[in-house]
Structures are given as C-alpha cells and as structure tokens.
Amino acid sequence: MAGIRKIVRIDEEKCDGCGLCVPSCAEGAIQIIDGKARLVSEVYCDGLGACLGKCPQDAITIEEHRAEEFDKEAVEQHLEELEKDKRVKSIVDQSMARPPMGGGCPGSLSRLFDPAVPQADAPADESVGEIESRLGNWPVQLNLAPIEAPYFDGATLLICADCVPFAFADFHRRFLGGKTLLVGCPKLDDIEHYTEKLTRIFLQNDLQAVEVMIMEVPCCSGLAHIVRVAAEQANKGMPVTVFRVGIRGDVLDKQVVTPGVV
Fold first, then answer.
1. Closest to 158 in 3D by CA, of 242, 255, 247
2. What range does the domain containing 249 cover?
3. Average pLDDT of the chain to the nearest whole number
4. Beta strands 156-161; 209-215: pairing state
5. Are 28 and 75 in contact, with CB atoms under 8 Å apart?
6. pLDDT tens-digit series, residues 228-262
7. Could you tell me the CATH number of the domain that includes residue 63?
8. Any idea what the CATH number is for the domain that residue 169 is in?
9. I need a labelling partner for 217 at 20 to 30 A (CA). Which of 110, 167, 174, 246 fits?
C-alpha cells in the first residue's frame, strides 16, 4: 500500500558506483547495478538515512513522496536471499580459483593496452643497471601494518591503492622515496576496518603529512574518502594530498584537502 513517507533518492548523475553506501544499508535496499547505486525496492527502505554519510559524492538524499510502505518481513526475506547469493558466489569463486571478471563496478572492466614501446623493439641499456627500490618499511598492506611503528614518526604517509604501482611506471622514484607506504583496495577490503585503523594510526603517531594515490576508476575514490574520514576523526591537522592516476599511467589531477574541512 502506497503512502506519503520518507525514502531514499539516489542521484545517478552524481553517483560514481564506489559502493560505500551498500554495507551501510542494513536492509540491503541499495545495491550496485550496472555501475551505479540503486534502490532495488521501496519496500526495503525504512527512510532513516543511515546510508547518507557514506556517500563521498553526496548522491544520496532523503525525500518525502508517495512510496510503497516499508515491509519488515520482505526485508528479512531479501537479506536471506542476499546472504545465500554471497555464499554461492564464494563457493563459485573458490572453485574457479580466480577472481571474478566484471562484477558490478565499472572500474573492473577488462582492458588491453599496447605498450608505448613494444618489448621486441625496446633498446637494451645495460649501463643503467638495476633500479633500486625506494621502499622503506614493511609490511605495506594496511591489514597487516601495526598501529604504532618507528617508521611512522615524523613521516609522510603514502596510502596507495593496490593497482597504482602497476599503472604508474615511475612510482618508486616519483612518489615513494623517503615516505612510509601503506596499500589497500576499497573495493575488495573491509572499508570500516580501514577507517578505524587509519584513525588509530593518525592518532597514535606523529605524522607530518598524508598522501593518497588512487586510480581513476570510480570505486577507487572510496580510498580517498576513507582517509579523509579518518583524518577528520583523528583531528590532527595533517594536510592530505590526493593524486588520481589514469589507467595508462599518467597523473590526472592533484587535490589538497584542508585539515578540518575533510
């Protein structure tokens, strides 16, 4: 039965499909479909707006208009179906022993590039010798990194999306030298855990600055959002600089976030 009530509205023009809103909706009313967050059914949305603060693009609002009534029993059945789908997907992924292709994120679209210089024609310059690594800390994976470590003190912390060093050929020389590195993926990892852990790292160490490197694909913007939220919660006044890298390896843009306005 339809009536006037509060319900979620998603602006598809603003939505970049990052998916941060999906886990914040306890009723499973929001899902990523064709690369965009969508309200799958009005009866699943309670209109309370728990998902609002999770959208870095401000694409989600609460509006009051005629909509189907919230149905708690339908929500319970819907959540059971989602959980069943997750279990089936997990079994299939494990049996295939390879990551699923495509998915709901437009950034996971398969692409093939021609190298700038074909390997067969690339000149061999043995005089250059081996390129030395600029990595100065270990572990680098955010899940494995400690909350406190000597290499955080007085450091510029570089928080990098997993794919960036593969796309950006001069990553070590241009960005890594003299910095402490942490890497993660906002699409595949636990974003709530990342936010909590980064907040604690910011609070418990004397960092000088934070740099973030993300890919141009929409879901990767979630990593910059996580860092900004953690910086805001820590309230340490550290400058946060975000670099966005193209899938062909060029730096597309740079944004400096003013402390206190994250």
1. 242
2. 134-257
3. 82
4. parallel
5. yes
6. 989 999 988 888 999 999 999 999 999 997 655 44
7. 3.30.70.20
8. 3.40.50
9. 174
pLDDT digits 0-9 by tens, 97-140 = 444 444 455 555 545 445 554 444 445 555 556 778 899 999 99
Write down the pLDDT at residue 102. Answer: 41
Instruction: Give the chain's domain count.
Output: 2
139 preceded by cis ω (within 30°)? Answer: yes
Q: Is residue 197 part of a domain?
A: yes
> Does 166 score more than 90 pLDDT?
yes
Residue 251 falls inside a structural domain = yes
Dihedral angle at the C-alpha atoms of 241, 245, 250, 256, nearest 10 degrees?
Answer: -20
Asked if residue 14 lies in contact with residue 25, where contact means CB atoms within 8 angstroms, the answer is no
**Separation in Å, CA 169 to CA 38, 137, 138, 153, 246:** 36, 20, 21, 28, 12
User: For residue 155, what are its two tokens?
Assistant: 């450091």
Residue 111 lies in a domain: no
